[in-house]
């Protein structure tokens, strides 16, 4: 009996977690469709005209999706060997977060819109596609981002300091009578201006304020070069490394990534076959 | 008789499709002028004041262009060996699309503005110019874009997910009373903000909304680094490849990468064959 | 007696200026917290609703912070060997500037908002963190910025000239009746437009004005490539230099550029000394 | 007599055109100051409040500057050997253009604002500074721009085509009732949106219009990568070339730019001294 349950659990595991069997692949694709349909339902539900006419149908659909996803979440926990590991994983948390808003909405009206977080589940698609090339490319991007994280952090810290200084200066110059109601609002204006978004909901009116704004704008325009430069340089490095890794492997110690001009393995000293 | 038609067809083919004869070149240039004149006519026609005064003349001109282009389309099909191949090609479709709106406008008023799609026909200019250097440079750009398409796709997918999450969050925070009428509208706002366009037609009014907006803006400002970095890295690689292909190898010591002005191998002193 | 004071001064110096002792580290962290709390106090004070309710408490807190920072400033001067060198240093000036606004506000109401300049003191955090990696990365960024300063200066000079020309042209075309009140205002508009901020507080109304604006916008959109390109190229160079400095040279054949994991020279097979 | 005039002309030439004598340098600096003062005068003159109070003084100053610049222009023509060459040169045209608006304003009121074109004369500063490093850096930038001009042209051509297509599409979708008055105005909106400026003077109101706008915005946001990538790649190449040129020169044929690994001159086959 237990063996049968075990076998059944294993089959379920293969269907839900893997996608190398036709049925597993089918499950993954069906899941993607359900997620997108569910997110679309919530979006349409928020449109007043559609809500008035099809409110009930959408409400039913939302609950249907919730029940299905709850069921799926239960099965995911049930059929995996180490359920805790899944529950605390990135996707485990996303999966839980994407069903709770519905139940929450029973007590808190409006909370059901939080269901859109379900969209994050589609990020699984990269796993579903199981395209080695996709994974490789995504890894290169992620590695470049990781390699630049310290530099980006320094940049962000400096920018934040600048934003506070610029915001407060503008508050002093323009003041509440020109829409710079208080320092937090002025910092919001700094963000809008430095990032070159420029909503125009708050704009400087005084001559001095416009002069300072010009400095903020030119600063924002020029320093975009910094994160771009950081990421580009790291990505170039990462791509070169990748290309190098595609090169030769030592026949004795199996160490990969020998450069084109190498005659000997740099790890074990073995003579390498001539590079092509 | 048939031979004469064949000969005539071939001459026509050379005039219309090729540009190495003076008459073929003349045809191409005349076509470019006609296309631009036709697009200008449609633009002017859309300006109310001009339309009121010269409406009839512009209408006549539009039909003249349409008849000419229809004739040209017919000849293109007639004089080519494999008409189907042309019809389903990129330019074949553009050519067809640029004449249909006029005929459509007989039933559907306003449709004639769709004629501006004719502007896409001027992309042929690169072929007309027949400048090898232009083609080379365009190829480098296209290769770099192709090489980065997987990475760009991953980036776009992640951005789309972010836009939905940001949009829905702002809908929940700001709500219809502050212009965030529904989730699709809020996603439109996300796009406006993340891409740093910042129309200002919809802006956050609450403190929390402004704080979240600041995050969206800084995200948009910083992640522009990602596509830029991807394309720059790929383009650098592509340009290096191109330069390597232009370089020479020593016939004695096989050392590669000799510059264009080199007469002797810089490693072994051997005289190099003249560069082309 | 004098020796005791000397000893006391030295201990104080270690606590305030260094962070390798537990108490020194504690002092630095406490200082960071105080600075952030102080900046937050000023921000909250500027919000009308909060000011009305907690005005007195915030006023007291501001003075408390000022007294503490004044005390700290005095101790910094007292315990260092060369006080003048500290006073005229970057952080010495920031430290002085961050206490003066409070005293100034006794005569000049509103001046106390200038206290936000205190935020610049948190830049010390990099020194506090004493993370070698952070310092290294920051150095790379600063070196790249220094290396590109001449090129950036040329770019900025050219942009400024362009801004004046574009601004004046728009003043002539649009004139005061369309919001381009005078040339300085039109130059402000140029900055808003060229940097792609686009507040929309001043916009062209005439056809010619819109055509010129389109040129300004496309210019701004395209030339962002220049500072980005400059910084990226310099950063790449700087990072390569850094990597080379991290690499090793074979003691036998002198071939440079051996990677960190290399045990043997890849050219002559010689065993390399262990990497640090 | 003639010799004396010749001698006097030559001295004048040295003062006006060269800056290696103290008096020549003094002349150049005085000229820069005059140009900036003149531009400032025109700017202030355009401010209504200042004009009302100091209108006469500014008017007098403008004429003073004009007379001085006219005199300088005359002397420049008089003291140079080939006046025609100067007159048709870039700076010759700028010099002429910067005095004509004043005389034009006698017949055409308002024309005197065109005097701001004088600002372009300050570009001479690079020549005045005579800093070799500045010239070198500017050359690198200009070379990179020249090297990328074909690629940038292809990019600009494609963008223009896109702008027309996007603009016309939006005209059809939104129409005059939503501010998209005619196709040229819609193309202006395309430019505002694609370049991420986003004034907000014209914004889409319909759902379909907003969806298309989102596409325009994301396109604009992503393709900024193209010019940036082009310029960055060309600049990197140019900087590498420059660094190479700093390397070694052949002792026989004086050919510069030998790479670090070169043992023989690649032009004349001469053995090179070992690289340091």
Keywords:
Helix Hairpins, Four Helix Bundle (Hemerythrin (Met), subunit A), mainly alpha, homotetramer, 276 residues
What can you tell me about this protein's structure?
4 copies of one chain form a homotetramer. Chain A has 276 residues and is mainly α. The first copy, chain A, has 2 domains: 2-130, Voltage-gated potassium channels. Chain C (Four Helix Bundle (Hemerythrin (Met), subunit A), Up-down Bundle); 154-225, Orthogonal Bundle (Helix Hairpins), CATH 1.10.287.70. The first copy, chain A, has 12 helices and no strands. Chains A and C meet through helix 9, helix 10, helix 11 and helix 12 of A and helix 2, helix 8, helix 9, helix 10 and helix 12 of C.
Structural class determined from secondary elements of chain A: mainly alpha
Most residues in contact: chain pair? A-C, 57 and 65 residues
Number of strands of chain A: 0
How far the N terminus sits from the C terminus of chain A, by CA atoms, comes to 59 Å
By oligomeric state, this entry counts as: homotetramer
Could you name the CATH homologous superfamily of the largest domain in chain A? Voltage-gated potassium channels. Chain C
Q: What's the architecture of the largest domain in chain A in CATH terms?
A: Up-down Bundle
- What fold name goes in the CATH topology slot of the largest domain in chain A? Four Helix Bundle (Hemerythrin (Met), subunit A)
Helix tally of chain A equals 12
